[in-house]
Amino acid sequence: MTEAAIVKENKEIARQYKELLRISYRTLTKEDKNLIRLAFDTSVEAHKDQRRKSGEAYIFHPIAVAKIVASEIGLDATSIAAALLHDVVEDTTYSIEEIEKMFGKTVALIVDGLTKISHLQQQQDKDVSLQAENFRKMLLTLNDDVRVIIIKIADRLHNMQTMDAMKPDKQVKIASETLYIYAPLAHRIGLYSIKTELEDLSLKYTEPEVYNDILTKIRESKQEQDAYIDAFTKVIKDSLDQEQLEYTIKGRPKSIYSIWRKIKTQNITFDEVFDKFAVRIIYKGDIANEKFLAWKIYSIVTDHFRPNPIRLRDWISSPKSTGYEALHITVMGPKGRWVEVQIRSERMNEIAEKGYAAHYKYKQGAEQEEKTMEEWLNRLQEALENSEANAVDFVEQFKLNLYAKEIFVFTPQGDLKSLPKGATPLDFAFSIHTAIGLHTRGAKVNNKLVPLSHELKSGDQIEIITSENAKPNVNWLDYASTARARSKIKSSLREEKKELAEEGKAVLARKLKAQKLSFNESMINELVIYFKLKTSLDLFYRVGIGKIDNKNLKEFTASRSNAFVSYFKNKIRKAPVAEDLNKEEITHKYDQIVFGKEEEVLDYKLANCCNPIPGDRVFGFITVSEGIKVHKKDCPNAIQFQSNYAYRIIQAKWIDSTQQDFKAIINLTGIDNLGLVSEITQEISKSMNVNMRSINFDSADGVFTGKITVIVKNNSILDTLIEHLKKISGIDKVSRE
């Protein structure tokens, strides 16, 4: 380096030192300044021949770490001195004994802890067996002074801020380690701003394209976000002013990392993340009345915007172990969008920004200040050592359980709906309107597509996707739990059965004519009795769905010509005739139990303790020596089984075997052409009583192969579908697996 460059660098080092003293969050005494000066001079001397990968003098790194410790975390002179010295023992000729002689036992202990952590990290780099999890545990147990962890977090933050000069593979390693170890530690200690910055910087190196894409989109949407915050603020401003409150309202964008995590976990796009920012209301108030003012502001906000009942976080009555205090509420803002509102006094805001160290500012006298510092460090040590959920989290869970029998959910427009616990999107759809329920095609919960069987939770926002062609099927009764939804579904299924019965009646008339049999009341009665049914409507319905086909009718005709059957038939004529032809009922014959979601037919025995009968609500219990035993849902032993042997319980239900659905797989091959998949799916959609479960097509060199899983009631329906598929242009072969 030239002499001019060295002079310039020395000037910059001196400027940085002065800035460190100026930005220190706490008031520094003369002794404090002397301690920091000695640490600074020692660090400059120790690192004088060292340079960072970027080429700058190494001393800029310890100064930067000390500045983070002083201003962003608000620690004392001891911590600032330790931060300046944190690499001295590891990287230079100074020993820990020399540090103790010069700076005292506390600084030496902190520097020693930081040196040990660096050695551990180097070991971790070389020794793959020392996993990140073990390293994290050692971090927590290695030291007696939590300031070691805090300075290490500050050290990691500055390393992350200046990582551009490193090799890409090293960047990814350090960023991943930061996400796994240091960001959670910062969160635990209450350094929320630092935690957020660590997460964002980590994402910048682990997923650079994703990071830059979200950053660009946040910048592009800033104008829209500002306009939304203005609209939100305008609604409550007059009410706040009327109470003569001094306050500021500002929008705080969500961190890039938290947006990315939401996109990933909920499988949604950037535009579908509605809570991309929080609104923060910071008010003036002395300690005596700040709690009262917080709840007053809460009341004003919820007068104008409907709150999500389970998203209230009262960190004022029960501050976090880190000292964090605030009221968090999530409300349904304009345009049916969720907005998180954070209500804090100026004091609480400082604690949120700086960590619990901000309490110093509000304590009088050096002695009181020192006591507060000690309390805080002890609290943090406990928080780090106790990996279990804290008491406040426990209370939050307990509060939710109090209201377990009822949940509150929201429409896309933000209207509140109350439903029983265990409700599904189908229950929600029918609670809005019967027509919406009957035409439900799918549902989104919190912008993510979910099955109709998905159990809703309080605070969910549900959007129902409807289609004119959608209609209830018998499985819906397994998904719906409210009386309203179930009765509407049953009613719709009955109507559909009547329609199918009407079609079946016409089909039966044609088929009897082909068999040279009369279509009259007497013949219908014979058929009803022959097929062991209850009403003529049952008969027509089963013909309509293909359960009674040509083969069955031919067997009936053959049986009539049998002399024995003729004799038996004379007896039948004296028996009571079948019920009225026009009776509007299709009876369920509960004659079979099926198990599991796939509704498999398995061997079972009925339990003697509760003696279930056809039609009862039941469950299967896998015994050790007697296979599956079927019990009633309200069996006296049910609670014991469900609590002690949940893994041995299998879902079960009685069904009418004539209406059971079966799964079939159809294989197709043919010549690939435009629109072929569309034609195939249209053909399946047109087929009555066929539900498509899954579809998979693969194409190579102009030839395609396909596999379709369908749900049908019987073979004849499947055979008809296969015949129709064979007629599609381009299809070469269709077979059942």
Automatic annotation (TrEMBL):
Q: Which PANTHER family does the entry link to?
A: GTP PYROPHOSPHOKINASE, GUANOSINE-3',5'-BIS DIPHOSPHATE 3'-PYROPHOSPHOHYDROLASE
Q: Which GO terms describe its molecular function?
A: kinase activity
Chain's role: In eubacteria ppGpp (guanosine 3'-diphosphate 5'-diphosphate) is a mediator of the stringent response that coordinates a variety of cellular activities in response to changes in nutritional abundance.
**Can the keyword Membrane be found in this entry's annotation?**
no
Q: Which InterPro entries match?
A: ACT-like_dom_sf, ACT_dom, Beta-grasp_dom_sf, HD/PDEase_dom, HD_domain, NT_sf, RelA/Spo_fam, RelA/SpoT_AH_RIS
Q: Does the keyword Oxidoreductase apply?
A: no
Q: Would you identify the family this protein belongs to, as annotated?
A: Belongs to the relA/spoT family.
Q: In which pathway does it act?
A: Purine metabolism
- Which residues does the UniProt record annotate as the domain TGS? 405-466
Alphabetically list the UniProt keywords: Coiled coil, Kinase, Transferase
Entry-linked PROSITE patterns: HD, TGS
Biological process (GO) annotations held by this record are: guanosine tetraphosphate metabolic process
Q: Which organism is it from?
A: Gillisia mitskevichiae
Name the chain's protein.
GTP pyrophosphokinase
Ranges where the HD domain occurs: 58-160
Q: Which residues form a coiled coil?
A: 366-397
